[in-house]
Amino acid sequence: MKKLLLFIIFQTFLFANSSILIINSYHKGYEFSDSIVTGIERILYTQSDIDINILYMDSKRVTSREYYDNLENLYSVQLKNRKYDLVIAVDRFAYDFVLEVSDRFFKSIPILAVGIENFSKENAKKYGVENRVSALLERRDLKGNVKAIEKLLPTIKKLYIINDKSLNALHTEPLINELIKDFDDDYELIYLKEDSLKDLEKKFSKYEEDIGALFIRFYKNKNGELNKNQAIAKFIKNSKIPIFITDSIFIEKGATGGKIVDLNRFGETSGQMALNILEKQKHEVVISEDLYYIFDARKLREFVLPVGVLSEDYEIVNKRLTFYDKNRGFIDVVFTISPLLFFLILGLIHNIYLRKQVEKDLRQRIDFDEVLLNAIESPIFWQNDKEIIVDSNDTFCKLIKLEGKDIYGKRLKDFEDNRNVRKVIKVLERYKENKNENNQFKYFDENLKKKVYLVKQEKFRDDKSESEGLVTIFTDITTEPVSYTHLTLPTKRIV
């Protein structure tokens, strides 16, 4: 913990009040340099005590010597009384400018050049900055792209290398010349430098089989007119042949893909180098090797390109959404809670099993009670508080000569047309008037055999259903000739 605390304190002290000047070769809104600067800022702003100032040279739109002279005078005012701990030059124009004015504005200040394609130690030594200049070179892999194109177009007949006629293009030409020099002549390799973007659009407006193009850049027409990224993206998207690329600007904007330099990631690497310089680490010139293959699924389908033949790892953008892609959030949630759902389902299954077992036991108990009830020779029936019959035994049904299924859910009064039922109703009414005197009645069964029944009623309550009612029992006392009243008299005499 102490070591961590000391490291944090050291880092805070190391970058405290550090000031960095970024000189951008181009204007704000130029996507190439903006992407690099965004990556640099993303890393540098992790340190809260670093101050960043950005100046724009606008070299794509203005390139005259007079402009650079006036720009130097302007910077002399802007940079007056300002001290920087590091100067970052983005691309060639800014780096060349920094070298020219280093003795005037940036004496003894470390310099970091990013985005340039070539570095000359002799040139650095000429301006006396060889011991304080670092560089991150942006080296596009043209040969790697050509090899990938040959695999995707195995019967290729022509491959165009597209470049413009700007000063930047001159720095890429050594790589293009090296590519042409090592070419095996298995098909036509054509270095194309058209005068305008319209010429390019016209050239590739018709489909030609087994033809492709590797796009390096085309930001300027021959007359100096600047082409906007939207216009270039439109040309690439509408081209009738597959257009491969070398950086990340036109990915997902119509390009087929290729082995690219991701400019945002390039900027992040530049930002990390800047922090290393502020930490007083040694100066170095590094070639960025952070390149990777990426392709657009729509263009692969359009030109029927078998990307699976590549042995290298690659990324695919604009893929068709699968069911999983469309429902990723829902599926992730399901997988997250699936263990809980599994145990919940197990619990429910166990609960259902227990309920079934209890239901089975209860059914057996009910069947047993029903058998036991029907085994009783005395007629018995139950009524709820609304005098509706809820249960009875077979003996009672025989007494009133009705089926159990016919009387359940109904009142005795509903069967007043039945002579036996009328008699039972009359007996119960008399019993209610005087339970002690009117507690017996006579009855003749189907064999005209006389029977004497003793009437007894008790209240019952079911706590689960919160219902209550009366249970009525007719006890057969035919074999007992002495009445219930006579049975109590001797007891009174003894008392």
Distance between the termini: 99 Å
Report the C-alpha radius of gyration, rounded. 50 Å
- What is the number of helices? 17
Largest sheet: 6 strands, parallel
Q: Predict the CATH topology of the largest domain.
A: Rossmann fold
Q: What quaternary form is this?
A: single chain
- Identify the strand order in the major beta sheet: 2-1-3-4-5-11
pLDDT < 50 runs, ≥5 residues: 1-13, 482-495
Q: Tell me the overall shape.
A: elongated
Strand content: 15-25%
CATH architecture of the largest domain: 3-Layer(aba) Sandwich
Any key phrases for this structure?
495 residues, alpha/beta, Rossmann fold, 4 domains, 6-stranded parallel sheet, 5-stranded antiparallel sheet, 17 helices, disordered C terminus
In short:
This protein is of the alpha/beta class and 495 residues long.
Structure description:
There is one protein chain. The protein is α/β, with parallel strands linked by helices. The chain has four domains: 2-137, Rossmann fold (3-Layer(aba) Sandwich); 142-262 and 290-326, 3-Layer(aba) Sandwich (Rossmann fold), CATH 3.40.50; 334-373; 376-494, 2-Layer Sandwich (Beta-Lactamase), CATH 3.30.450. Helices cover 44% and strands 20% of the residues. It has helices at residues 2-14, 31-44, 65-78, 91-105, 121-126, 142-152, 167-181, 197-203, 229-238, 263-278, 297-302, 323-326, 328-375, 394-400, 404-407, 419-433, 484-494; strands at 18-24, 50-56, 86-90, 111-114, 133-137, 158-162, 188-192, 211-215, 243-245, 257-261, 285-287, 291-296, 314-317, 380-384, 389-392, 440-444, 450-462, 467-476. It has a six-stranded parallel β-sheet. The protein has a five-stranded antiparallel β-sheet with strand order 15-14-18-17-16. Helix 9 links the parallel strand 8 (211-215) and strand 9. Helix 2 packs across helix 10. The radius of gyration is 50 Å and the shape is elongated.
